[in-house]
């Protein structure tokens, strides 16, 4: 028996072979990967994982690929930073930053999902890969396609940050800039996916793609010394990442890697695009689509595909959701940079801003082991903070000019 059992409908439970399909023919519910856990349980152990590659592929047994050849062999296993300074500032004893700003090769958490999606796409015989993207996904698909010699089309909205546009063009895929927002791009791509035999990583390959997010949960547990955290804060675009961190934590318990999971799953959005957080705070189990207007463009999905499941997941775990303004996002980026030396993109500002709110509200408590997921790199969204960081202090190239400007004492110590 293989470790992948089938694709299963999240609504009616119908099962399908593990091919490039994503919706149930009977009820149109979304499909997700189902595993033969009994089989996985027999071979997986902490020791076998620790002896594995220094990448997310050490958890290959829990990923929907056949292997052993993979696309994106270096993705994942990013640092888990004990954030003492930020923790002290916020009043938390044990705060960690899971730092995917340095993921390989394109500096965002998307390198995880794309590595799984393209590995599976290649196993299913595809030669052309594509995606509908809010920015980081396109960068990662383009880079991985180049490295694995696959044909590539990336579809992006018309208002992306300069570094994210450039971060596509440099790999020379077909970059399609659609006049509209992400939701327009996604609608168009769903039509194209139906017409062309391509692997759209977040459409017909979505069940596999989404599983890549689980590696953030696995790494969290292993890097905390084989324990699940008490609280996590996760940025939400489609909501997929949030649901998969919960799935990953529970799988680890299920296959016997940890004894218990009591993690509260908290979701973070920007006020300018918060359909999921708004629904949660209103006590609704469904969201109303919105038209996004926020500097957090990587999270700007007005009609989130996994919004309903994200709401369910957070409720089931006993977690919370909240949202922050553009100003609070910028403050969050600066706070993380100035306390921990980590330069995050706008999504990271959303995470830190919401973390701050949840601590203030007493939702996250001082003694709780807390992990904040920082999913993208600040060098890709420079325009968001350009006005908020001031300018360098300019001097003449002379000692006099320096000492006049900076009144520093001689021979050590400030004056
Ligand atoms: C895509 C993305 C997310 C989360 O995406 P989901 O669609 O919710 O899985 C979070 N942060 C960044 C930087 C992203 O690019």
TrEMBL record:
<feature type="modified residue" description="N6-(pyridoxal phosphate)lysine">
    <location>
        <position position="110"/>
    </location>
</feature>
<comment type="similarity">
    <text>Belongs to the threonine synthase family.</text>
</comment>
<dbReference type="GO" id="GO:0009088">
    <property type="term" value="P:threonine biosynthetic process"/>
</dbReference>
<dbReference type="InterPro" id="IPR001926">
    <property type="entry name" value="TrpB-like_PALP"/>
</dbReference>
<keyword id="KW-0456">Lyase</keyword>
<dbReference type="GO" id="GO:0004795">
    <property type="term" value="F:threonine synthase activity"/>
</dbReference>
<dbReference type="InterPro" id="IPR050147">
    <property type="entry name" value="Ser/Thr_Dehydratase"/>
</dbReference>
<dbReference type="Pfam" id="PF00291">
    <property type="entry name" value="PALP"/>
</dbReference>
<dbReference type="InterPro" id="IPR036052">
    <property type="entry name" value="TrpB-like_PALP_sf"/>
</dbReference>
<keyword id="KW-0663">Pyridoxal phosphate</keyword>
<dbReference type="GO" id="GO:0006565">
    <property type="term" value="P:L-serine catabolic process"/>
</dbReference>
<dbReference type="GO" id="GO:0006567">
    <property type="term" value="P:L-threonine catabolic process"/>
</dbReference>
<protein>
    <recommendedName>
        <fullName>Threonine synthase</fullName>
        <ecNumber>4.2.3.1</ecNumber>
    </recommendedName>
</protein>
<dbReference type="GO" id="GO:0004794">
    <property type="term" value="F:threonine deaminase activity"/>
</dbReference>
<dbReference type="GO" id="GO:0003941">
    <property type="term" value="F:L-serine ammonia-lyase activity"/>
</dbReference>
<dbReference type="InterPro" id="IPR004450">
    <property type="entry name" value="Thr_synthase-like"/>
</dbReference>
<dbReference type="GO" id="GO:0009097">
    <property type="term" value="P:isoleucine biosynthetic process"/>
</dbReference>
<feature type="domain" description="Tryptophan synthase beta chain-like PALP">
    <location>
        <begin position="73"/>
        <end position="376"/>
    </location>
</feature>
